Amino acid sequence: MTSQTTVKTLLILGASGDLTGRLLLPGLARLVARGRAGGLALVGAGSDPWTPDQWRTRVTEAFATAEAVADSDGRTALKDMAESTVYHQLDVTADGALAELLGNLAGPVAVYFALPPHVSQKACEVLQPDQVPAGTRLVMEKPFGSSTESARSLNQTLVRLVPEDHVYRVDHFLGKATVLNILGLRFANNFLEPVWNRDHIERVEIIFDEDLALEGRARYYDGAGALRDMVQSHLLQIMALIALEPPATIHERELRDAVSAVLRASAIKAPYAKSTRRARYTAGSIAGRTVPDYAAEEGVDPARNTETLAEVRVAIDNWRWKGVPFILRSGKALGNKRKEAVITFRPVPHLPLGFSGVDSPNQLRIGFGPDTLQLDMDVNGPGDIFTLDRATLKAELNASELLPYGEVLEGVLNGDPLLSVRGDTAEDCWRIIEPVLRSWGRDDVPLEEYDAGGPGPAGWLAVPNGAAGE
Ligand code: NDP
Q: Which atom of ligand 1 is nearest to the CA of 120?
């Protein structure tokens, strides 16, 4: 069955760009193939003088990725959308250009800014409120601003044009399945909530270690680094979901209020040489592939000291979490690919004398993409009944049939901002990391090195300095 979207036109600005071709169009294709984008028209726009056929070819090629999951209705819908889509050449920063296009499209329109961030900002600044038809959604990509101040200013520009719940700040890391999997685990299991606090949890680690290196993205990445690219956005959002208070519903207002309350209580505290670490990879090899030294990569300015691995210890100063370190780490070119949150419980207060073997703290591991759950427990045997051994209970969590960008777009097209980052939260995420950026800029924290394809700098596998306490 085909479901109709609330939005009638999806306007993608940046039609020729990387995000559009590699992520947005394949994400949309999944929705279309599954009959979840009925009644939607697709329009592309960009500064290139593309012919209509060039754009249609791009859409058709990207849509081919979804044919394998489509039934015959789905294939027809994909073909119809690819054939009917149109392309407009325009400079979105020119006075009146975007406004004129908006006025001519069937509304409500979702405007996807798949543009360099400064171009998106300029495009919004030249728009006037009376040029934006009622019901228009504005979809903004990351990075949302580059500081608390710039995020605030961009927020002010946007709410001048549309209400806050019509602004979608995309965080594709937060797929709907992942969000709901964490909430389901936390709030549908009575035994977890009573121990989900400082009395029983020693620390929480949220790790996103990639085996990918720079992959030709120096232009963006060398100006960003791991802290801005991953921690400021994605990992703080995951942290908030793990730490939030039980919401009464999973409606966007309830949930985003709860996320916002966690982030307002969060800070990375000085001295930063104790609460943070940073490193950059040198030459090495990953799965037989030679990886050059980051500093020698084309487009990299080594003097910037851009980190490819960042780790911070976040304190959440509220009743539930005071004193529990939340360690957020993300890095590139690591030998061991790891995407998970690890919740480590405190040791038992007293292990009856007479037991031998392992007595390690319980750990709950939530894996991301694919979403999994693992609970490490100590049990007796096998073999000697007095000997404790480690057992792991494993489960696979719900996997979405949509790609992450399919989930993002579905929220936009159906008017559900649940997965979108709210304006105040976007500002708070910058507020949390800004003191660290300043400290690293002063070189207060040494930039360590690690071999590409290795485990990271010596000593990083262990819990960071003083992480067991604040
Ligand atoms: P690209 O540089 O590949 O594409 C940018 C697009 O913007 C091009 O199509 C370009 O067209 C168009 N453009 C630039 N200036 C104008 C203008 N004045 N008027 C109209 N069109 C214009 O960037 P990406 O696709 O990589 O990134 C887009 C956004 O998505 C960025 O905010 C990025 O941070 C974010 N993002 C990207 C990811 C990725 O993997 N690529 C992942 C997550 C977020 P032309 O070439 O004709 O100028």
A: 32
